[in-house]
Amino acid sequence: MRAIMQNFPKIFSIGMFSHKGPNYYLLEMSSYKMKLQAKGWSTSTSYPKLHIHDNSIVDRQLNIEISGENPFYGCGCVCLLLSALAILEEGNKMPERGGVLPPGYAFYNTNILHKFKNFSNYLRIKVL
């Protein structure tokens, strides 16, 4: 069954995937929009041993909309390249130990968001 699905992806994905790859026109016409709700603290004070469900200390809430065009090859490539540039140019501002880190923590002290302003057609961040 797996071999049949790999040989005929267009049939089993209702036309979404094929061996030819993505259609350039469809990539350019694609867009995305996400609305996020963030809860946190108004100051950067860290609370040791904070329990995830302890909402008594949370004093700030933001609603954010992230949108852009061509999320696959456009925004994905821009995010990857700007992240790599931030690591190369501003690696001294990142956490010392490295490892697997959430992007918000890893790039907190860098200028990565300012670099995204040059690519506003791929990534737009709006605080609602």
From TrEMBL:
<dbReference type="InterPro" id="IPR051276">
    <property type="entry name" value="Saccharopine_DH-like_oxidrdct"/>
</dbReference>
<dbReference type="GO" id="GO:0009247">
    <property type="term" value="P:glycolipid biosynthetic process"/>
</dbReference>
<protein>
    <recommendedName>
        <fullName>Saccharopine dehydrogenase-like C-terminal domain-containing protein</fullName>
    </recommendedName>
</protein>
<dbReference type="GO" id="GO:0005811">
    <property type="term" value="C:lipid droplet"/>
</dbReference>
<dbReference type="GO" id="GO:0005886">
    <property type="term" value="C:plasma membrane"/>
</dbReference>
<dbReference type="GO" id="GO:0005739">
    <property type="term" value="C:mitochondrion"/>
</dbReference>
